[in-house]
TrEMBL record:
<dbReference type="GO" id="GO:0051082">
    <property type="term" value="F:unfolded protein binding"/>
</dbReference>
<protein>
    <recommendedName>
        <fullName>Urease accessory protein UreE</fullName>
    </recommendedName>
</protein>
<keyword id="KW-0143">Chaperone</keyword>
<keyword id="KW-0533">Nickel</keyword>
<dbReference type="InterPro" id="IPR007864">
    <property type="entry name" value="UreE_C_dom"/>
</dbReference>
<dbReference type="GO" id="GO:0006457">
    <property type="term" value="P:protein folding"/>
</dbReference>
<dbReference type="InterPro" id="IPR036118">
    <property type="entry name" value="UreE_N_sf"/>
</dbReference>
<dbReference type="InterPro" id="IPR004029">
    <property type="entry name" value="UreE_N"/>
</dbReference>
<dbReference type="GO" id="GO:0005737">
    <property type="term" value="C:cytoplasm"/>
</dbReference>
<dbReference type="InterPro" id="IPR012406">
    <property type="entry name" value="UreE"/>
</dbReference>
<dbReference type="GO" id="GO:0016151">
    <property type="term" value="F:nickel cation binding"/>
</dbReference>
<dbReference type="Pfam" id="PF02814">
    <property type="entry name" value="UreE_N"/>
</dbReference>
<keyword id="KW-0963">Cytoplasm</keyword>
<feature type="domain" description="UreE urease accessory N-terminal">
    <location>
        <begin position="1"/>
        <end position="67"/>
    </location>
</feature>
<dbReference type="GO" id="GO:0019627">
    <property type="term" value="P:urea metabolic process"/>
</dbReference>
<comment type="similarity">
    <text>Belongs to the UreE family.</text>
</comment>
<dbReference type="GO" id="GO:0065003">
    <property type="term" value="P:protein-containing complex assembly"/>
</dbReference>
Length: 147
């Protein structure tokens, strides 16, 4: 079993042996057993509070083997608006509810939630239900929580 105790930033030229696809919530677990796509068991033993991002590289403590993290496609709500101010208002209201949100210049993305979906629909923004990689912002103090 590989044991990953160190994270490195994304590097397209890293000599990785495999990938580990995880959802946004799974990427917040710093201590957990996983199974890679090739079936090999791995243990994450990263510093508490570590949040993995798409492309991050994990280093095995014994062999030095490298594994790349990929953001696993998952159910999401993608929010688009006719103008920037409506998208900003939606982001503000989601932030007031401490919701994990992916923020880009053209859309917001969050985990499915019927109450939040209804709130956003009342605001007049468009919501699409999709299966997509989810990259929520980490909190102001480097932590991500999902509710």
């Amino acid at each position: 079993m590989l044991t990953f105790t160190q994270k490195k930033p994304p590097s397209p030229n890293a000599a990785v042996i495999s990938t580990l696809s995880l959802t946004a919530e799974e990427r917040t677990r710093s201590r957990h057993h996983w199974q890679m796509e090739d079936g090999q068991a791995v243990l994450l033993r990263l510093p508490r509070g570590t949040v993995l991002r798409d492309g991050d590289i994990l280093v095995d403590e014994t062999t030095g083997s490298l594994v790349r993290i990929t953001a696993k496609p998952e159910p999401v709500l993608t929010v688009v608006a006719k103008n920037t101010i409506d998208l900003l208002k939606a982001a503000y209201h989601l932030g007031n509810r401490h919701v994990a949100v992916e923020i880009t210049p053209s859309y917001l993305r969050l985990s499915p939630d019927p109450i939040l979906q209804a709130m956003l629909e009342q605001m007049g923004v468009e919501i699409k239900e999709e299966i997509s990689p989810f990259q929520p912002e980490v909190g102001a103090y480097g932590h991500h929580h999902s509710h």
